[in-house]
Amino acid sequence: MKKYLRIVISVTLIVCTSFTLTGCWDYSEMTDLEYVAGVALDKDRNTKEYILTIEVLEASVSSKSIKSSILQTKGKTIHQAFRNAIKNSGKKLQLSHAKILIFSRELAAEGVTPIIDFINRDVEARNDMWVLISSMSSASQILMKSKTSDEIISYDLADAIKNCKEIGSYIPIEVFRLIDDIENECIAAMVPTVRVISQQTKSYTEIDGMCIFKSSKCIGHLSGEETTFLQLMKVRKGRKAKYVLTFEPEKSQKVTLEIMKATKKIKPRFENNNINMDVYINMDVALSELAEKGINFVAKDNREELIKKCEKDIENKCCDILKKIQYQYGTDVVGFGCSISRNNPKLWKKIKYKWNDVYKNIKTNVYVKINIKYSGLTNKNIKLGE
C-alpha cells in the first residue's frame, strides 16, 4: 500500500511541476512585435531629446524575402524614445535581431555612456551589436538613404564589417568591447565611421576611418589610410590582417603588397626617468601587383631594395600617426599603457591616474621587417610592345 501511495504522490508532483516549467517567462506573439535590424541615434539641438531612427524588419506572406522600413521617434531618454515608437508602429520593438548601432558625431562628442548603458542593461538588446559613428551631419541619414526594395541597410553594414580584415581601413567594435575600452585605464576606445556615397542614381554606405575617444567622448578622427597603419601597431589581438598596402618606391612605379601575416611586439624601455616605446612589426607579404613597366622588383637585388624602401615607408607613416595621436589628441589608442602595466606593474600603479599626461611625453620608435613570401604565378613584369 505504501509503495502505491509513494508512486501516486510522485506522479502528482511531476504533473503539477510540469505546468510551471513549460512556456516562456515573457511570452509574446510574434505578430505583436516589430523586429529591429539597426538603430541610429541623434539629438535634437533645441529640445535636447534623443532622436531614434529605427530600421525594422517586415516579413510578407506573399513574398519569400524579408524587407525593411524606417521608423523615427523621440524621447527624453533612450528607453522612452523606444517606447514612444509604439505610437507609430502599434507594436513593441524587439531588439534581439538588431546588429547595428549608429551615433551621430555630435552625440558621440557629448558622450556615449547613456546609450551603451541602456543597451548593456536591457534584457532584450544585444550587447554584441556593431557600433558606428556617422560622418554625415546626422546618424539618421545612414539608415534613411535611398535603397532597393529588398535591401536591409543594417544587415548590409554588418556583412561589410565581417569582411573588415580584407580592407584594413577600419577596426570593428561591438557594444561590449566599447564598454571595456571606455572602462580600461591603459587603452582608449575607437569606433569606425560610416557615410553615404551617391553615384548617379544609386547610393551606398561606406565604412572608412576611425573616431578616437578620450573616456566616453569622441575627440578626433583618423582617415582610412591612417587606420591601415595603426592596425599594425595596436596591442589587442583582432582579426588577422589580410589587406593590401600600396607603395611607390620609384616615381610612377607603384607596387602592391598583400599582408599574409603580421605580428607586432611593443617593448617599453625605462631610461633616466624617461619612457621609450619600441614597436617591432614583422610582416609576411605577397607581391600582388607590380608596375606595368620599368624596374623588375622580383629580381633579387631589386627585391631587397624594394623591401628596404617599403620598410622605411611604413616606419615613417607609423611614426607620423603616433605623433598625431600623441600630440594632437593625447589619448592612447594603441595600448602603450597596457604594455607598461604588464612589463612594470609598480611603475604603472604610480602613473596610471595621470597616464594621459605622461603619454604625451613618451618617445616612440618603430622598426619594420618585411618578408616577401610569394610573388604570384609569374616572376616577370608585363612588357609592353613597341
TrEMBL record:
Keyword Signal on entry: yes
Statement: the UniProt record of this protein carries the keyword Signal: yes
Location(s) in or outside the cell: Membrane
Membrane association type: Lipid-anchor
Domain Spore germination GerAC-like C-terminal, chain residue ranges per copy: 208-376
Spore germination protein N-terminal domain span: 26-195
GO terms of biological process kind: spore germination
Family: Belongs to the GerABKC lipoprotein family.
Official protein name in the record: Spore germination protein KC
Species the sequence originates in: Clostridium botulinum D str. 1873
